[in-house]
Backbone:
């Protein structure tokens, strides 16, 4: 289980509460947080619950599941030019159902599906981090996702399958400063997270999500920063997840790792942080091997040490900025460092999501890699 | 020394409190009228700008279409295909609340709450308790202002029933609009989601406009948007729209301001009069001061200092009174703008420091200007002797001569200004002011001549008593002439405006009667963009045609098309043989004109439209269609007084070639000869929806004329304000005149003249002054009326009208002059009659 | 009605004589009582020439104003032909003045807006509509004064002496019983003053009218029947030439 429910719910809450907020990013008030939880806990039952594994049917399941509270299409990737200039990108589409049921009236604008998109670019050489976000309802075709092929869009930002297979996807996003136009081809089969795509996050019934990924997508295309255009190649990671639940009261945030190693294997692991600082036993992940086989990982399998911290000059929040990750049963020892420290997204909901580089050993063999780390709930 | 000087002078002033009060009153009233007009006018005109700013925030451009509205998919295309950011879709209309009593019309403003924050619209500042996005998901949920809700005794969660063209809708209040200085603007505003707005207003699939926020002058971006727009859609700067509305009302504003200036001018006379009195009365005091070595400059400063003090008090009072008066004028002014120009959503008086400062400076400047002459005269008092009356009067003879010469100069200047200034409204009004001033300056001469003639007539009668009033008017012409001139101006203004309004009324009445060729008119107003309107209208028209007693129908569709870069009003006609007579052409035309109108790309334009746009018969007008610009030949110009900007008229045949069918705005029903019209009206009513009406030609005539009277209410009000100030001026002058001759009146009393005889004497004198003023006001009023009709109104609005002579106006003017002079003379007459003769004889 | 009243009055006061009893006049100024005179008593017989002497502000003018009914006493009575002026209304006093009093002022006080002839006609017109007879009378009077050529002149075109002569004519033209003259020579040079005094003497005394003149010119004293001085708020007989 990755991008946890609370995450999205907080965004929903802030949006619900703060859709008229002034341009200054005002953090949600404490009392409004409680009111989100109120809304969620009272209305939760009416959204479709994730109770057991399901058989995924594609391309329908690439499309939206509007009776579920929250859903996303999540792309991150490490790119570089011919001259080895390194970039990272994130393009994410979130969907929220504002109500469990859509009231259908005459206007095509009437819609209960809210889409939010985040777009970030990391320019390692320029030591710059660019972010932007978009909001729209699904009405009047302003945003949405298709059921006949992989296609999600919000205004002019989109992720759209090039062919029927759904394994090749074109990403497009731009604003006045930055732009990407990328083609992603999955080098591996769809990776089902958790138990055949049923990702439980606590023993409580319904506290789970449906979750699958493309863990390694060969990426080519162009990107633009201000007036500069770059041809780039690299590797991307795509996550799809939907659910109707939220974090438990004890879980204050999470650290999430999506790592692509040079031996053609990928590691996904998330760990919850509890209020009391202890390890949350619901933390979990999986290792996807080069041969498409998978090793599930639990909280005891993975040991993560934070080696350094970085204090954001924008928010004064201190984030971990270097980790040592070891998985004894896979013989894996990895040092993970951000490409640049400042990859904090100061959008409506604040979090850190950044490109990282990896150096380490697998069974005493040198190994390297790249990936993305997401840090939420830091104050 | 200076303190003593001031004291000597001030002690005198204390003895004449009423002259001080009148001087202050003159400033106060003049400033009050000017300030109130400025405030009320600016508030009315700014209402649109403020509403726009509150609702559109920092948006600088707006995408609009002709009345067909914008396709909502255009917005999707701009966002999704063209990737244009910072767009705000709007669906906008008016609804009537069934709950309120008085002003129950609300603007329903449908927005997308998820647009970029950078717009910073007032409604985007809304933040209350987390329920707000349900405006999107839950139908008919709205935000209104807390004050409005409280007035209607509504709470959050309460139902709020409204009616629109699509029927009754029960809205639900889910939150309050933000409370800030824009509170007034939000009094009659309902904010809702675009979906609800579309559904309530019957505009599903349509947008009223798309606001565009373009931060800098990003020409490339503007170009990108322009290229993405269909041919019949316009991207126009919001400022242009605000400016064009301002421009539209410019003539109206200038005319109102001129009326205010008239009041200030008359007020200046009051100040002039009072200060002259105070200087003349102190002739001896000033002489004494000069003889003990006070310099001319010191005297001048003394008088100016006094005037400044009076100006200060008067101006401050005037501004306070102006604000109060402004509050009362505001509904009149915004009502007129509402009726003629565009909807004014709110009416709250907004007072800016700049306006206050302007009013303040104007009050001070007017006072100083009015006081300059008396102050200068004061310095001319020679130190060693007191001038005797005859010398003063012989000076006055010279003054009459110079005034007459100046008068001729002013009148010539005014006339040449009229000839040379083309279409400029302000200069046209200035020339009227010049001519009025000229005639005012001519008044002393005229008075002198008239009184000499009257004297000649009286010489045959042996009565000395009868001669006294005539001689008094004549001999003190420096004072009486001024009072007569003031009264003359006020009465001439009254006569001039009455004649003008009368002529206008007559012209409009004839025009309305000529235009109303049908027996009944069905009003189908409603949202043009409403999807089913056109079909419903056509069905109704069919049903109307089938009714018993209907001979034929005509129809009109009032809409807007884009000409160049601005929307132009257009009336689309289906005309039959009878309705053709409703067009009063400004030039006789050949008989083929109707054939051309129906068959070829041609249009008529109304007279104001031709005037403002500089269009002549034979010119071409280019209009935007979905297929690009099309050219239409202007084949006739016809009279129309329904609006001062005018419009284009097009045959429906031609219109339908290029633009979508929007139904009808009105259908004219022509009854068969001898059919039961009452029954027919009842039958028609059966076919109509609640918001549609049928009215007989007589009722429409009546309503039109009522509307006409309504639009002149503000003019009437201001005219009366000027008249009141003039009255106070005449009163003040008569008070001063009578005071100055206290001694003379004392002698008469000593010789055995009774108080009654004295009162009669004064009354005859004032009556005479009124008569002169009235007599002179008649020709001047005529000239004013002529200038108003053929210069100001033509220049302002492009209307030509027939001069309509009305004898009763003349009589009323004459009567007004005499009665106001007599009334103004009552108090001075009584006061003088009851002054103890012994005291009077002692007076200097 | 008014005319009737006038005739009644005329009958009532046919034999004018002035009697002043215990007359006091004071006025208030800034809260202070100023006494002009106190307990003044005087009796003037018909045809008598009385001169009032006194410094400026001694109350000479006030006394004349009281006798003419222009002003009213604080205490006391003024009887003219047995009519108590203090018992009359303002209107009645005006009518009384119109018929019985002729005024000559220091400052001439001709009506500046009327010609010489008109100034003389005015007192006549106040009594009766002007007739051609009246006009003749005016011309006659002016001829007598040697001013016939100034008939249509306005007063301010005349010299002081001329003006005062016309003022005297105006005081006499309607044939009043009593002439009140307030410093008639005060604005004139000595010679002109003499002429004016002579004129007054001739035109008033010779027709048997009562003349009361306020002056501080000693020259007049010889001509007067009695001379009084207003001094310390009371009237003192200075000379009696009867």
Residues:
């Amino acid at each position: 289980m990755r991008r946890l429910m609370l995450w999205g719910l907080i965004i929903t809450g802030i949006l619900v509460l703060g859709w008229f907020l002034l341009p200054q990013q005002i953090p949600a008030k404490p009392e409004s947080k409680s009111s989100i939880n109120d809304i969620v806990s009272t209305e939760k039952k009416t959204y479709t619950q994730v109770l057991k594994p399901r058989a995924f049917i594609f391309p329908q399941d690439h499309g939206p599941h509007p009776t579920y509270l929250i859903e996303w299409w999540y792309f991150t990737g490490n790119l570089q030019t011919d001259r080895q200039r390194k970039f990272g990108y994130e393009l994410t589409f979130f969907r929220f159902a504002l109500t469990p049921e859509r009231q259908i009236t005459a206007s095509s604008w009437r819609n209960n599906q809210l889409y939010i998109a985040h777009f970030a670019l990391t320019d390692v050489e320029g030591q710059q981090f660019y972010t932007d976000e978009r909001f729209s309802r699904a009405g009047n075709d302003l945003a949405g996702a298709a059921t006949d092929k992989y296609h999600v869009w919000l205004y002019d930002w989109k992720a759209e399958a090039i062919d029927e297979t759904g394994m090749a996807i074109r990403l497009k996003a731009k604003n006045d400063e930055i732009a990407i136009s990328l083609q992603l081809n999955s080098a591996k089969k769809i990776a089902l997270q958790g138990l055949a795509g049923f990702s439980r996050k606590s023993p409580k019934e319904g506290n789970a999500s449906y979750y699958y990924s493309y863990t390694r997508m060969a990426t080519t295309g162009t990107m633009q920063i201000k007036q500069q255009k770059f041809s780039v190649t690299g590797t991307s990671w795509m996550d799809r997840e939907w659910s109707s639940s939220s974090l438990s009261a004890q879980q204050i945030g999470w650290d999430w790792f999506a790592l692509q190693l040079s031996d053609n294997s990928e590691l996904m692991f998330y760990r919850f942080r509890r209020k009391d600082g202890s390890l949350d036993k619901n933390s979990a992940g999986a290792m996807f091997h080069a041969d498409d086989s998978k090793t599930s990982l639990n909280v005891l399998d993975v040991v993560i040490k934070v080696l350094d911290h970085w204090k954001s000059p924008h928010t004064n929040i201190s984030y971990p900025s270097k980790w040592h990750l070891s998985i004894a049963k896979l013989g894996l020892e990895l040092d993970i460092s951000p490409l640049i420290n400042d990859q904090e997204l100061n959008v409506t909901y604040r979090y850190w999501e950044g490109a990282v580089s990896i150096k380490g050993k697998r069974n005493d063999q040198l190994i390297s890699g790249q990936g993305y780390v997401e840090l939420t709930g830091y104050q | 020394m200076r303190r003593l000087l001031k004291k000597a002078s001030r002690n005198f002033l204390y003895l004449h409190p009423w002259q001080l009060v009148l001087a202050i009153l003159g400033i106060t009233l003049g400033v009050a009228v000017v300030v109130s007009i400025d405030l009320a006018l600016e508030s009315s005109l700014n209402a649109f700008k403020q509403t726009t700013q509150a609702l559109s925030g920092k948006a600088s451009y707006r995408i609009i279409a002709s009345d067909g509205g914008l396709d909502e998919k255009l917005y999707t295309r701009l966002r999704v295909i063209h990737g244009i950011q910072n767009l705000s879709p709007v669906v906008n209309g008016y609804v009537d609340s069934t709950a309120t009593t008085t002003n129950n019309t609300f603007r329903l403003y449908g927005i997308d709450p998820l647009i970029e924050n950078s717009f910073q619209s007032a409604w985007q500042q809304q933040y209350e308790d987390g329920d707000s996005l349900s405006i999107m998901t839950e139908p008919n949920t709205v935000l209104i202002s807390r004050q409005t809700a409280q007035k209607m005794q509504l709470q959050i969660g309460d139902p709020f029933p409204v009616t629109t063209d699509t029927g009754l809708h029960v809205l639900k209040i889910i939150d309050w609009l933000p409370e800030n200085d824009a509170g007034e603007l939000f009094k009659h505003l309902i904010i809702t989601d675009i979906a609800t707005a579309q559904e309530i207003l019957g505009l599903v699939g349509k947008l009223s406009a798309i606001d565009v926020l373009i931060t800098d002058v990003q020409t490339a971006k503007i170009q990108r948007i322009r290229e993405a727009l269909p041919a019949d859609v316009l991207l126009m700067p919001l400022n242009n729209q605000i400016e064009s509305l301002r421009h539209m009302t410019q003539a109206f504003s200038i005319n109102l301001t001129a009326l205010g200036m008239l009041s200030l001018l008359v007020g200046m006379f009051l100040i002039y009069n009072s200060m002259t009195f105070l200087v003349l009365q102190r002739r001896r005091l000033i002489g004494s001061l000069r003889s003990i070595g006070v310099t001319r400059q010191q005297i001048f400063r003394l008088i100016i200092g006094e005037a400044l003090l009076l100006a200060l008090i008067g101006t401050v009072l005037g501004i306070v009174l102006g604000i109060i008066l402004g509050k009362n004028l505001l509904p009149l002014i915004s009502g007129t703008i509402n009726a003629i120009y565009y909807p004014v959503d709110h009416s709250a008086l907004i007072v800016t420091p700049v306006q206050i400062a302007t009013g303040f400076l104007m009050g001070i400047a007017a006072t100083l200007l009015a006081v300059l002459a008396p102050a200068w005269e004061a310095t001319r008092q020679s130190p060693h002797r007191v001038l005797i009356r005859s010398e003063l009067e012989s000076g006055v003879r010279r003054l009459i001569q110079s005034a007459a010469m100046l008068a001729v100069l002013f009148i010539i200047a005014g006339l040449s200004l009229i000839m040379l200034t083309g279409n400029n409204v302000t200069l046209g009004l200035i020339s009227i002011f010049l001519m009025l001033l000229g005639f005012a300056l001519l008044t002393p001469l005229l008075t002198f001549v008239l009184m000499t003639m009257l004297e000649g007539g009286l010489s045959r009668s042996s009565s000395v008593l009868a001669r006294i009033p005539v001689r008094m008017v004549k001999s003190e012409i420096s004072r009486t002439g001024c009072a007569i001139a003031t009264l003359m101006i006020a009465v001439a203004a009254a006569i001039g405006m009455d004649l003008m309004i009368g002529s206008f009324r007559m012209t409009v009445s004839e025009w309305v009667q000529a235009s109303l060729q049908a027996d009944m008119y069905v009003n189908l107003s409603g949202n043009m963009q409403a999807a089913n309107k056109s079909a419903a209208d056509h069905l109704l028209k069919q049903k109307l045609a089938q009714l018993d007693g209907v001979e034929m129908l005509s129809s009109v569709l009032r809409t807007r098309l884009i000409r160049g870069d601005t929307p132009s009003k257009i009336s689309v006609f289906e005309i039959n043989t009878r309705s053709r007579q409703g067009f009063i052409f400004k030039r006789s035309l050949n008989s083929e004109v109707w054939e051309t109108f129906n068959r070829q790309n041609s249009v008529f334009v109304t007279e104001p439209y031709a005037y403002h746009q500089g269009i002549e018969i034979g010119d071409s007008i280019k209009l935007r269609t979905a297929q690009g610009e099309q050219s239409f030949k202007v084949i006739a110009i016809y009279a129309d007084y329904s609006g001062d900007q005018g419009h284009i008229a097009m045959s429906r045949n031609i219109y339908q070639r290029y633009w979508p069918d929007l139904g009808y705005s009105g259908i004219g029903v022509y009854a068969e000869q001898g059919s039961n019209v009452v029954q027919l009206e009842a039958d028609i009513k059966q076919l109509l929806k609640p918001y549609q009406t049928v009215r007989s030609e007589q009722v429409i005539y009546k309503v039109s004329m009522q509307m006409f009277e309504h639009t002149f209410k503000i003019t009437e009000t201001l005219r009366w304000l000027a008249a009141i100030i003039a009255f106070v001026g005449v009163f003040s002058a008569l008070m001063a005149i009578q005071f100055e001759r206290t001694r003379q009146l004392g002698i008469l009393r000593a010789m055995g003249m009774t108080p009654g005889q004295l009162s009669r004497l004064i009354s005859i004198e004032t009556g005479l002054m009124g008569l002169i003023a009235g007599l002179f006001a008649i020709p001047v009023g005529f000239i004013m009326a002529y200038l108003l009709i053929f210069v100001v109104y033509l220049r302002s609005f492009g209307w030509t009208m027939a001069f309509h002579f009305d004898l009763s106006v003349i009589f009323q003017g004459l009567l007004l002059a005499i009665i106001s002079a007599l009334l103004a003379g009552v108090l001075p007459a009584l006061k003088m009659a009851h002054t103890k003769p012994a005291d009077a004889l002692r007076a200097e | 009605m008014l005319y009737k009243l006038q005739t009644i009055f005329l009958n009532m006061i046919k034999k004018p004589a002035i009697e002043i009893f215990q007359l006091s006049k004071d006025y208030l100024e800034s809260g202070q009582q100023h006494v002009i005179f106190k307990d003044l008593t005087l009796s003037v017989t018909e045809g008598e020439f009385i001169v009032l002497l006194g410094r400026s502000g001694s109350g000479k003018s006030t006394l004349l104003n009281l006798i003419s009914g222009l002003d009213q006493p604080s205490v006391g009575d003024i009887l003219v032909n047995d009519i108590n002026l203090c018992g009359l209304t303002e209107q009645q006093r005006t009518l009384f003045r119109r018929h019985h009093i002729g005024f000559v002022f220091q400052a001439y006080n001709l009506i500046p807006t009327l010609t010489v002839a008109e100034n003389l006609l005015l007192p006549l017109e106040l009594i009766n509509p002007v007739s051609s007879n009246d006009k003749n009378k005016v011309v006659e009077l002016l001829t007598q004064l040697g001013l016939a050529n100034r008939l249509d002149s306005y007063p301010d075109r005349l010299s002081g002496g001329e003006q005062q002569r016309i003022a005297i004519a105006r005081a006499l033209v309607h044939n009043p019983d009593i002439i009140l003259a307030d410093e008639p020579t005060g604005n004139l040079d000595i010679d002109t003053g003499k002429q004016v005094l002579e004129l007054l003497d001739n035109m008033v005394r010779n027709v048997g009218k009562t003349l009361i003149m306020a002056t501080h010119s000693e020259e007049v004293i010889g001509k007067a029947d009695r001379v009084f001085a207003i001094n310390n708020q009371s009237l003192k007989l200075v000379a009696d030439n009867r």
